[in-house]
Amino acid sequence: MSSDRASLLQALRDRLDPAGLQAGADIEMRFRKDWYAPLDPQPPLAVARPRDTGEVAAVLAACHRYGQPVVPQGGLTGLAAGATPRGGELVLSLERLRGVEAIDPQAGTMTVRAGTTLQAAQEAAREAGWLLALDLGARGSCQIGGNLATNAGGNRVIRYGMAREQVLGLEAVLADGTVLSALNKMQKNNAGYDLRQLFVGSEGTLGVITRAVLRLAPLPACTQTALCALARYEDVVALLRLAQRRLSGRLSAFEVMWADYYGIVTGRVPGMRAPLPAGHPFYVLLDLQGDDAAQDGAAFEALLEAALEAGLIADAALATSQKEADALWALRDAVAEFPQRWAPNAAFDVSLPIGSIGTFADSLRARVLAAWPQAELVNFGHVGDSNLHVSVHLPGATAASFPEAEIEALVYGVVGEFAGSISAEHGIGLHKKPYLHHSRTPAELALMRTLKQALDPRGILNPGRVFDAG
Protein backbone atom coordinates (compact mmCIF):
# COMPACT_ATOMS: atom_id res chain seq x y z
CA MET A 1 0.00 0.00 0.00
CA SER A 2 1.29 3.47 -0.87
CA SER A 3 2.24 5.84 1.93
CA ASP A 4 -0.55 8.23 0.87
CA ARG A 5 -3.19 5.52 1.22
CA ALA A 6 -1.77 4.42 4.54
CA SER A 7 -1.84 8.03 5.74
CA LEU A 8 -5.41 8.42 4.54
CA LEU A 9 -6.57 5.30 6.38
CA GLN A 10 -4.86 6.50 9.56
CA ALA A 11 -6.56 9.89 9.22
CA LEU A 12 -9.93 8.13 8.90
CA ARG A 13 -9.24 5.91 11.90
CA ASP A 14 -8.38 8.98 13.93
CA ARG A 15 -11.74 10.58 13.04
CA LEU A 16 -14.13 7.62 13.09
CA ASP A 17 -15.10 5.24 15.90
CA PRO A 18 -13.89 1.59 15.68
CA ALA A 19 -17.07 0.49 13.86
CA GLY A 20 -16.74 3.35 11.41
CA LEU A 21 -14.00 1.94 9.20
CA GLN A 22 -13.44 -1.42 7.53
CA ALA A 23 -10.28 -2.07 5.56
CA GLY A 24 -8.51 -5.02 3.98
CA ALA A 25 -9.85 -8.42 5.03
CA ASP A 26 -12.35 -6.76 7.38
CA ILE A 27 -14.47 -5.40 4.48
CA GLU A 28 -17.85 -7.13 4.44
CA MET A 29 -18.92 -8.60 1.09
CA ARG A 30 -22.24 -6.72 1.21
CA PHE A 31 -20.44 -3.46 0.45
CA ARG A 32 -18.83 -4.87 -2.70
CA LYS A 33 -21.80 -4.56 -5.10
CA ASP A 34 -25.31 -3.26 -5.48
CA TRP A 35 -28.33 -5.32 -6.45
CA TYR A 36 -27.82 -5.59 -10.21
CA ALA A 37 -24.11 -5.37 -10.90
CA PRO A 38 -21.13 -7.70 -11.28
CA LEU A 39 -18.54 -7.88 -8.54
CA ASP A 40 -15.24 -6.14 -9.22
CA PRO A 41 -12.49 -8.71 -8.53
CA GLN A 42 -10.40 -6.01 -6.87
CA PRO A 43 -11.70 -4.93 -3.45
CA PRO A 44 -12.31 -1.33 -2.42
CA LEU A 45 -9.65 0.39 -0.35
CA ALA A 46 -11.94 0.67 2.66
CA VAL A 47 -15.51 1.22 3.83
CA ALA A 48 -16.21 4.34 5.89
CA ARG A 49 -19.41 4.29 7.96
CA PRO A 50 -19.85 7.76 9.48
CA ARG A 51 -22.46 8.40 12.16
CA ASP A 52 -23.32 12.01 11.39
CA THR A 53 -22.82 14.85 8.95
CA GLY A 54 -19.64 15.99 10.66
CA GLU A 55 -18.04 12.60 10.14
CA VAL A 56 -19.16 12.54 6.49
CA ALA A 57 -17.48 15.92 6.07
CA ALA A 58 -14.30 14.67 7.72
CA VAL A 59 -14.16 11.60 5.46
CA LEU A 60 -14.64 13.65 2.31
CA ALA A 61 -12.17 16.33 3.37
CA ALA A 62 -9.52 13.66 3.91
CA CYS A 63 -10.29 11.94 0.60
CA HIS A 64 -10.20 15.29 -1.19
CA ARG A 65 -6.81 16.04 0.32
CA TYR A 66 -5.37 12.71 -0.84
CA GLY A 67 -7.26 12.56 -4.17
CA GLN A 68 -9.00 9.35 -3.10
CA PRO A 69 -12.02 8.26 -5.21
CA VAL A 70 -15.20 7.81 -3.13
CA VAL A 71 -18.34 5.81 -3.88
CA PRO A 72 -21.37 6.86 -1.78
CA GLN A 73 -23.69 3.97 -0.87
CA GLY A 74 -27.25 3.80 0.38
CA GLY A 75 -29.37 0.66 0.55
CA LEU A 76 -27.63 -1.01 -2.43
CA THR A 77 -30.89 -1.64 -4.28
CA GLY A 78 -29.78 0.20 -7.43
CA LEU A 79 -30.00 -1.26 -10.91
CA ALA A 80 -27.32 0.77 -12.71
CA ALA A 81 -24.12 -0.13 -10.78
CA GLY A 82 -23.87 3.43 -9.51
CA ALA A 83 -22.98 2.27 -5.98
CA THR A 84 -20.76 -0.68 -6.89
CA PRO A 85 -17.15 0.14 -6.00
CA ARG A 86 -14.31 -0.55 -8.35
CA GLY A 87 -10.95 -1.74 -7.08
CA GLY A 88 -9.17 0.77 -4.85
CA GLU A 89 -12.12 3.12 -4.39
CA LEU A 90 -13.38 4.04 -0.92
CA VAL A 91 -16.97 3.18 -0.03
CA LEU A 92 -18.84 5.85 1.92
CA SER A 93 -21.80 4.03 3.46
CA LEU A 94 -24.62 6.17 4.86
CA GLU A 95 -26.28 3.27 6.67
CA ARG A 96 -25.51 4.64 10.15
CA LEU A 97 -27.09 8.03 9.44
CA ARG A 98 -30.53 6.74 10.36
CA GLY A 99 -33.58 8.28 11.93
CA VAL A 100 -36.46 10.68 11.50
CA GLU A 101 -35.43 13.87 13.28
CA ALA A 102 -38.71 15.77 13.18
CA ILE A 103 -42.21 15.83 11.74
CA ASP A 104 -43.71 19.29 11.52
CA PRO A 105 -47.52 18.93 11.42
CA GLN A 106 -48.02 22.61 10.69
CA ALA A 107 -45.65 22.70 7.72
CA GLY A 108 -46.50 19.14 6.67
CA THR A 109 -42.84 18.16 6.50
CA MET A 110 -40.46 15.48 7.74
CA THR A 111 -36.76 16.01 8.43
CA VAL A 112 -34.93 12.72 7.96
CA ARG A 113 -31.36 11.48 7.85
CA ALA A 114 -30.09 10.02 4.58
CA GLY A 115 -29.53 6.45 5.81
CA THR A 116 -33.12 5.97 6.93
CA THR A 117 -34.94 3.32 4.93
CA LEU A 118 -37.90 4.47 2.90
CA GLN A 119 -40.18 2.10 4.79
CA ALA A 120 -39.09 3.46 8.18
CA ALA A 121 -39.78 7.00 6.99
CA GLN A 122 -43.17 5.97 5.58
CA GLU A 123 -44.14 4.30 8.85
CA ALA A 124 -43.08 7.32 10.90
CA ALA A 125 -45.17 9.58 8.67
CA ARG A 126 -48.16 7.24 8.93
CA GLU A 127 -47.95 7.10 12.72
CA ALA A 128 -48.08 10.90 12.73
CA GLY A 129 -51.14 10.89 10.45
CA TRP A 130 -49.35 11.77 7.22
CA LEU A 131 -48.38 10.10 3.95
CA LEU A 132 -44.84 10.04 2.57
CA ALA A 133 -45.92 9.58 -1.04
CA LEU A 134 -42.68 8.18 -2.46
CA ASP A 135 -43.11 4.40 -2.73
CA LEU A 136 -41.28 1.59 -4.52
CA GLY A 137 -40.85 -2.13 -4.19
CA ALA A 138 -37.47 -1.92 -2.42
CA ARG A 139 -38.95 0.24 0.35
CA GLY A 140 -37.65 -2.03 3.13
CA SER A 141 -34.01 -1.74 2.02
CA CYS A 142 -33.58 1.42 -0.06
CA GLN A 143 -32.56 4.57 1.79
CA ILE A 144 -33.80 8.13 1.53
CA GLY A 145 -30.40 9.44 0.45
CA GLY A 146 -30.20 6.96 -2.39
CA ASN A 147 -33.81 7.63 -3.37
CA LEU A 148 -33.00 11.31 -3.75
CA ALA A 149 -29.59 10.81 -5.35
CA THR A 150 -31.22 8.76 -8.11
CA ASN A 151 -34.48 10.76 -8.21
CA ALA A 152 -36.50 7.61 -7.60
CA GLY A 153 -39.94 7.24 -9.15
CA GLY A 154 -42.07 4.30 -8.11
CA ASN A 155 -45.75 3.57 -7.89
CA ARG A 156 -47.30 6.98 -7.13
CA VAL A 157 -45.55 9.32 -9.56
CA ILE A 158 -48.71 9.96 -11.56
CA ARG A 159 -50.24 11.73 -8.55
CA TYR A 160 -47.36 12.94 -6.40
CA GLY A 161 -44.42 13.23 -8.79
CA MET A 162 -40.86 11.91 -8.68
CA ALA A 163 -38.60 12.03 -5.62
CA ARG A 164 -37.49 15.57 -6.46
CA GLU A 165 -41.09 16.77 -6.02
CA GLN A 166 -41.08 15.45 -2.44
CA VAL A 167 -38.00 17.48 -1.40
CA LEU A 168 -38.22 20.95 0.12
CA GLY A 169 -34.76 21.15 1.62
CA LEU A 170 -31.45 19.30 1.68
CA GLU A 171 -28.20 19.05 3.54
CA ALA A 172 -25.28 17.82 1.44
CA VAL A 173 -21.53 17.56 1.84
CA LEU A 174 -19.37 18.68 -1.07
CA ALA A 175 -16.29 16.87 -2.30
CA ASP A 176 -13.91 18.97 -0.17
CA GLY A 177 -15.92 18.40 3.02
CA THR A 178 -17.89 21.65 2.92
CA VAL A 179 -21.32 21.18 4.49
CA LEU A 180 -24.11 22.82 2.51
CA SER A 181 -27.14 23.04 4.80
CA ALA A 182 -30.31 24.23 3.09
CA LEU A 183 -33.02 22.54 5.18
CA ASN A 184 -35.82 24.69 3.84
CA LYS A 185 -39.39 23.86 4.95
CA MET A 186 -41.21 26.28 2.65
CA GLN A 187 -42.86 25.43 -0.64
CA LYS A 188 -42.14 28.90 -1.99
CA ASN A 189 -38.54 30.04 -1.76
CA ASN A 190 -37.07 31.90 -4.71
CA ALA A 191 -34.09 33.40 -2.89
CA GLY A 192 -31.50 32.64 -5.53
CA TYR A 193 -30.60 29.33 -7.16
CA ASP A 194 -32.48 26.19 -6.16
CA LEU A 195 -29.36 24.35 -5.00
CA ARG A 196 -31.18 21.24 -3.75
CA GLN A 197 -31.90 20.21 -7.33
CA LEU A 198 -28.17 20.05 -8.08
CA PHE A 199 -27.96 16.97 -5.88
CA VAL A 200 -31.29 15.25 -6.54
CA GLY A 201 -30.67 12.84 -9.40
CA SER A 202 -26.92 13.49 -9.53
CA GLU A 203 -26.09 9.95 -8.29
CA GLY A 204 -23.52 11.13 -5.76
CA THR A 205 -21.29 12.76 -8.37
CA LEU A 206 -21.72 16.35 -7.10
CA GLY A 207 -22.13 15.88 -3.36
CA VAL A 208 -23.32 13.47 -0.69
CA ILE A 209 -26.84 14.02 0.67
CA THR A 210 -26.93 13.66 4.46
CA ARG A 211 -30.34 15.04 5.53
CA ALA A 212 -33.54 16.08 3.79
CA VAL A 213 -36.78 17.90 4.46
CA LEU A 214 -39.53 15.96 2.71
CA ARG A 215 -42.99 17.15 1.82
CA LEU A 216 -45.81 15.08 3.36
CA ALA A 217 -49.34 14.62 2.06
CA PRO A 218 -52.62 14.04 3.91
CA LEU A 219 -53.01 10.37 4.79
CA PRO A 220 -55.68 8.80 2.55
CA ALA A 221 -58.66 7.38 4.40
CA CYS A 222 -59.55 4.84 1.73
CA THR A 223 -58.21 3.11 -1.35
CA GLN A 224 -60.02 1.68 -4.37
CA THR A 225 -58.25 -0.81 -6.64
CA ALA A 226 -59.25 -2.61 -9.83
CA LEU A 227 -57.68 -4.61 -12.64
CA CYS A 228 -59.02 -4.02 -16.14
CA ALA A 229 -58.54 -5.91 -19.41
CA LEU A 230 -58.20 -3.90 -22.65
CA ALA A 231 -57.83 -4.67 -26.33
CA ARG A 232 -55.70 -1.81 -27.70
CA TYR A 233 -53.01 0.54 -26.48
CA GLU A 234 -55.14 3.45 -27.67
CA ASP A 235 -57.79 2.28 -25.20
CA VAL A 236 -55.16 2.26 -22.43
CA VAL A 237 -54.44 5.95 -23.03
CA ALA A 238 -58.16 6.76 -23.31
CA LEU A 239 -58.80 5.00 -19.97
CA LEU A 240 -55.97 6.98 -18.36
CA ARG A 241 -57.44 10.29 -19.48
CA LEU A 242 -60.98 9.25 -18.51
CA ALA A 243 -59.78 8.22 -15.04
CA GLN A 244 -57.89 11.47 -14.53
CA ARG A 245 -60.94 13.47 -15.54
CA ARG A 246 -63.54 11.49 -13.60
CA LEU A 247 -61.51 11.03 -10.41
CA SER A 248 -60.42 14.67 -10.10
CA GLY A 249 -56.83 14.18 -8.98
CA ARG A 250 -57.45 11.08 -6.86
CA LEU A 251 -55.91 8.63 -9.36
CA SER A 252 -52.73 7.50 -7.59
CA ALA A 253 -51.50 4.61 -9.75
CA PHE A 254 -51.95 3.48 -13.33
CA GLU A 255 -49.93 0.34 -13.96
CA VAL A 256 -50.03 -1.34 -17.38
CA MET A 257 -49.12 -4.97 -18.08
CA TRP A 258 -48.91 -6.31 -21.62
CA ALA A 259 -50.28 -9.80 -22.29
CA ASP A 260 -46.76 -11.27 -22.31
CA TYR A 261 -46.05 -10.07 -18.78
CA TYR A 262 -49.46 -11.10 -17.43
CA GLY A 263 -49.16 -14.55 -18.97
CA ILE A 264 -45.72 -15.24 -17.53
CA VAL A 265 -46.59 -13.95 -14.05
CA THR A 266 -49.88 -15.83 -13.75
CA GLY A 267 -48.56 -18.94 -15.48
CA ARG A 268 -45.06 -19.39 -14.08
CA VAL A 269 -44.88 -17.71 -10.67
CA PRO A 270 -46.04 -20.16 -7.98
CA GLY A 271 -49.03 -19.05 -5.96
CA MET A 272 -49.99 -16.23 -8.33
CA ARG A 273 -53.71 -16.23 -9.13
CA ALA A 274 -55.13 -14.80 -12.37
CA PRO A 275 -58.03 -12.49 -11.40
CA LEU A 276 -58.92 -12.06 -15.10
CA PRO A 277 -58.49 -14.61 -17.90
CA ALA A 278 -55.23 -14.54 -19.84
CA GLY A 279 -55.28 -13.59 -23.50
CA HIS A 280 -56.27 -9.92 -23.38
CA PRO A 281 -53.65 -7.70 -25.02
CA PHE A 282 -53.42 -5.30 -22.03
CA TYR A 283 -54.15 -5.25 -18.30
CA VAL A 284 -54.36 -2.03 -16.31
CA LEU A 285 -54.12 -1.80 -12.52
CA LEU A 286 -55.95 1.32 -11.32
CA ASP A 287 -55.64 2.75 -7.82
CA LEU A 288 -57.57 5.60 -6.22
CA GLN A 289 -56.67 7.18 -2.88
CA GLY A 290 -59.32 9.32 -1.23
CA ASP A 291 -60.88 10.45 2.02
CA ASP A 292 -64.48 9.22 1.78
CA ALA A 293 -64.97 5.49 1.23
CA ALA A 294 -68.63 5.79 0.18
CA GLN A 295 -68.19 8.66 -2.27
CA ASP A 296 -64.86 7.49 -3.62
CA GLY A 297 -66.13 3.93 -4.03
CA ALA A 298 -69.14 5.18 -5.96
CA ALA A 299 -66.97 7.38 -8.18
CA PHE A 300 -64.57 4.52 -8.85
CA GLU A 301 -67.36 2.11 -9.80
CA ALA A 302 -68.93 4.80 -12.00
CA LEU A 303 -65.59 5.18 -13.80
CA LEU A 304 -65.42 1.45 -14.51
CA GLU A 305 -69.02 1.43 -15.73
CA ALA A 306 -68.37 4.39 -18.03
CA ALA A 307 -65.26 2.70 -19.41
CA LEU A 308 -67.21 -0.51 -20.06
CA GLU A 309 -70.02 1.38 -21.79
CA ALA A 310 -67.51 3.26 -23.94
CA GLY A 311 -65.87 0.00 -24.98
CA LEU A 312 -62.52 0.94 -23.46
CA ILE A 313 -62.32 -2.12 -21.22
CA ALA A 314 -63.45 -5.68 -21.91
CA ASP A 315 -63.48 -6.95 -18.34
CA ALA A 316 -62.65 -5.77 -14.83
CA ALA A 317 -61.98 -7.16 -11.36
CA LEU A 318 -62.77 -4.76 -8.51
CA ALA A 319 -61.08 -5.35 -5.14
CA THR A 320 -63.64 -5.44 -2.32
CA SER A 321 -61.09 -5.81 0.50
CA GLN A 322 -57.50 -4.92 1.27
CA LYS A 323 -56.58 -8.57 0.82
CA GLU A 324 -57.97 -8.55 -2.71
CA ALA A 325 -56.23 -5.25 -3.46
CA ASP A 326 -52.93 -6.70 -2.24
CA ALA A 327 -53.46 -9.71 -4.52
CA LEU A 328 -53.90 -7.41 -7.52
CA TRP A 329 -50.76 -5.48 -6.63
CA ALA A 330 -48.89 -8.76 -6.24
CA LEU A 331 -49.24 -9.21 -10.00
CA ARG A 332 -47.30 -6.02 -10.63
CA ASP A 333 -44.77 -6.65 -7.87
CA ALA A 334 -44.02 -10.16 -9.19
CA VAL A 335 -41.30 -8.63 -11.37
CA ALA A 336 -39.06 -9.18 -8.34
CA GLU A 337 -39.21 -12.90 -9.20
CA PHE A 338 -37.68 -12.42 -12.64
CA PRO A 339 -33.97 -12.48 -11.69
CA GLN A 340 -34.47 -15.92 -10.12
CA ARG A 341 -37.15 -17.51 -12.31
CA TRP A 342 -36.47 -15.90 -15.68
CA ALA A 343 -32.69 -15.73 -15.83
CA PRO A 344 -30.67 -14.63 -17.60
CA ASN A 345 -32.54 -11.53 -18.70
CA ALA A 346 -31.78 -7.95 -19.66
CA ALA A 347 -34.01 -5.46 -17.84
CA PHE A 348 -34.69 -1.93 -19.03
CA ASP A 349 -36.22 1.14 -17.40
CA VAL A 350 -37.05 3.67 -20.11
CA SER A 351 -39.47 6.49 -20.72
CA LEU A 352 -41.18 7.71 -23.86
CA PRO A 353 -43.98 10.08 -24.80
CA ILE A 354 -47.16 8.34 -23.62
CA GLY A 355 -48.71 8.28 -27.09
CA SER A 356 -45.65 6.52 -28.53
CA ILE A 357 -45.29 3.72 -25.99
CA GLY A 358 -47.53 1.24 -27.79
CA THR A 359 -45.79 1.72 -31.13
CA PHE A 360 -42.40 1.56 -29.43
CA ALA A 361 -43.25 -1.75 -27.76
CA ASP A 362 -44.40 -3.26 -31.05
CA SER A 363 -41.33 -2.02 -32.94
CA LEU A 364 -38.95 -3.21 -30.25
CA ARG A 365 -40.54 -6.65 -30.13
CA ALA A 366 -40.19 -7.04 -33.90
CA ARG A 367 -36.52 -6.06 -33.83
CA VAL A 368 -35.64 -8.26 -30.87
CA LEU A 369 -37.32 -11.28 -32.46
CA ALA A 370 -35.63 -10.58 -35.77
CA ALA A 371 -32.26 -10.74 -34.04
CA TRP A 372 -33.10 -13.53 -31.57
CA PRO A 373 -36.15 -15.52 -32.78
CA GLN A 374 -36.23 -17.59 -29.58
CA ALA A 375 -36.44 -14.53 -27.32
CA GLU A 376 -39.17 -13.92 -24.77
CA LEU A 377 -39.93 -10.25 -24.13
CA VAL A 378 -42.25 -8.64 -21.59
CA ASN A 379 -43.51 -5.08 -21.25
CA PHE A 380 -44.98 -3.47 -18.16
CA GLY A 381 -44.77 -0.17 -16.39
CA HIS A 382 -46.33 2.89 -14.87
CA VAL A 383 -47.13 4.34 -18.34
CA GLY A 384 -49.25 7.15 -16.86
CA ASP A 385 -45.94 8.88 -16.10
CA SER A 386 -44.31 7.81 -19.41
CA ASN A 387 -42.33 4.97 -17.77
CA LEU A 388 -42.04 1.55 -19.41
CA HIS A 389 -40.11 -1.46 -18.15
CA VAL A 390 -38.92 -4.05 -20.65
CA SER A 391 -37.25 -7.40 -19.98
CA VAL A 392 -35.71 -9.70 -22.59
CA HIS A 393 -34.97 -13.38 -21.89
CA LEU A 394 -33.35 -15.98 -24.15
CA PRO A 395 -34.45 -19.51 -23.18
CA GLY A 396 -31.52 -21.86 -22.93
CA ALA A 397 -28.92 -19.13 -22.63
CA THR A 398 -26.44 -19.15 -19.78
CA ALA A 399 -24.98 -16.18 -17.98
CA ALA A 400 -21.83 -16.60 -20.08
CA SER A 401 -23.62 -16.90 -23.43
CA PHE A 402 -26.32 -14.27 -22.87
CA PRO A 403 -25.67 -11.36 -25.32
CA GLU A 404 -26.57 -8.59 -22.90
CA ALA A 405 -24.45 -5.90 -24.54
CA GLU A 406 -25.97 -6.55 -27.96
CA ILE A 407 -29.50 -6.50 -26.55
CA GLU A 408 -28.79 -3.24 -24.71
CA ALA A 409 -27.42 -1.59 -27.83
CA LEU A 410 -30.53 -2.58 -29.78
CA VAL A 411 -33.02 -1.47 -27.11
CA TYR A 412 -31.38 1.86 -26.35
CA GLY A 413 -30.99 2.56 -30.05
CA VAL A 414 -34.75 2.19 -30.52
CA VAL A 415 -35.35 4.40 -27.45
CA GLY A 416 -33.24 7.08 -29.11
CA GLU A 417 -35.21 6.80 -32.35
CA PHE A 418 -38.42 7.44 -30.40
CA ALA A 419 -36.91 10.48 -28.58
CA GLY A 420 -37.18 8.72 -25.24
CA SER A 421 -34.95 8.48 -22.17
CA ILE A 422 -32.69 5.50 -21.50
CA SER A 423 -33.42 5.90 -17.77
CA ALA A 424 -36.80 6.74 -16.33
CA GLU A 425 -36.17 6.18 -12.64
CA HIS A 426 -33.07 4.07 -11.91
CA GLY A 427 -30.24 6.40 -12.91
CA ILE A 428 -27.27 5.94 -15.22
CA GLY A 429 -24.42 4.72 -13.01
CA LEU A 430 -21.90 2.61 -14.90
CA HIS A 431 -24.41 0.35 -16.58
CA LYS A 432 -26.10 2.88 -18.87
CA LYS A 433 -23.25 5.32 -19.34
CA PRO A 434 -22.31 4.12 -22.86
CA TYR A 435 -25.82 4.95 -24.08
CA LEU A 436 -26.36 8.37 -22.50
CA HIS A 437 -25.86 10.08 -25.86
CA HIS A 438 -29.22 8.66 -26.98
CA SER A 439 -30.97 10.91 -24.45
CA ARG A 440 -28.63 13.88 -23.88
CA THR A 441 -27.24 16.32 -26.42
CA PRO A 442 -23.55 17.26 -26.60
CA ALA A 443 -24.42 20.68 -25.14
CA GLU A 444 -26.17 19.08 -22.16
CA LEU A 445 -23.25 16.74 -21.53
CA ALA A 446 -20.83 19.67 -21.71
CA LEU A 447 -22.81 21.58 -19.08
CA MET A 448 -22.90 18.50 -16.86
CA ARG A 449 -19.10 18.28 -17.06
CA THR A 450 -18.82 21.98 -16.20
CA LEU A 451 -20.93 21.47 -13.06
CA LYS A 452 -18.88 18.41 -12.10
CA GLN A 453 -15.62 20.32 -12.48
CA ALA A 454 -16.92 23.24 -10.43
CA LEU A 455 -18.19 21.18 -7.49
CA ASP A 456 -15.68 18.32 -7.58
CA PRO A 457 -12.47 19.69 -9.16
CA ARG A 458 -10.39 16.65 -8.17
CA GLY A 459 -13.01 14.25 -9.54
CA ILE A 460 -13.23 12.06 -6.43
CA LEU A 461 -17.02 11.68 -6.11
CA ASN A 462 -18.34 8.57 -7.85
CA PRO A 463 -15.81 8.99 -10.66
CA GLY A 464 -16.74 7.56 -14.03
CA ARG A 465 -20.42 7.19 -13.13
CA VAL A 466 -23.12 8.83 -15.29
CA PHE A 467 -20.54 10.22 -17.75
CA ASP A 468 -16.79 10.58 -18.16
CA ALA A 469 -15.65 13.93 -16.79
CA GLY A 470 -13.53 14.60 -19.86
UniProtKB/TrEMBL annotation:
Listed PROSITE patterns: FAD_PCMH (PS51387)
Keyword annotations: FAD, Flavoprotein, Oxidoreductase
UniProt keyword Flavoprotein, yes or no: yes
Superkingdom of the organism of origin: Bacteria
Co-factor(s): FAD
Repeat listed as a keyword: no
Domain FAD-binding PCMH-type: 39-219
PANTHER family found in the cross-reference section: D-2-HYDROXYGLUTARATE DEHYDROGENASE, MITOCHONDRIAL
UniProt similarity note: Belongs to the FAD-binding oxidoreductase/transferase type 4 family.
Protein name according to UniProt: FAD-binding oxidoreductase
Organism from which the protein derives: Cupriavidus malaysiensis
